[in-house]
Amino acid sequence: MSFYKVLVIGDVGVGKTSMVNRIVYNTFSEKYKATIGCEFGLKIIEINGESIRIQLWDLAGQDRLGGISRLYCRDANGAIVVNDVTREGNLKQACAWKNSVDENVCMADGTPIPMVLCANKSDMLPPESSITDETIQRFALENKFVAGFLTSSKTGLNTNEALLQLVEKIMSKH
Ligand code: GTP
Ligand code: MG
Fold first, then answer.
1. Who has the most CB within 10 Å: 19, 127, 156, 171?
2. pLDDT (tens digit, 9 = 90+) per residue, 77-99?
3. Residue 103 to residues 93, 113, 158, 166: CA-CA distances in angstroms?
């Protein structure tokens, strides 16, 4: 059975814990409780008849002030970089998070570990918003993410899809 370690990272309050809870328990809460240090979630998915165990490392958003600890990044197979689409300039922050991971961990061959970009809280975007799945995907590919999605931890939009794309990429590299 394959086992992968996936980091869930991004600024304070963007919805990392909510995304893990959506993926693992299919639940959502409006209440905010800041993550201290790191919490864990385990998700098992079937791909081509094989069970894949994914350990999600839900890190506190505050930690980027000092970069992400090398300890957290150690042996990570991939990362979900979460941002809040309702916050101006937050996509750039996603790149800062990606760089922070790249500084701390890489594949055995020296290439970066796969990461997906989740532009979260998309349920709060006004209908006339110019931010779409296409603009997120384009930004993600330009910045060397595997893929980018508009997501919502609240409704569950694209949360499983993002994880699946990440895991498929991880598997293709192992
Ligand atoms: P830290 O642990 O402090 O880094 O925050 P976090 O990124 O884990 O954020 P968390 O999941 O705790 O969510 C912060 C707040 O945003 C909570 O009140 C959630 O209910 C809310 N929230 C999270 N995701 C979504 C979403 O997709 N849509 C909406 N509308 N609210 C969300
Ligand atoms: Mg949290």
1. 19
2. 999 999 999 998 888 899 999 99
3. 15, 11, 28, 20
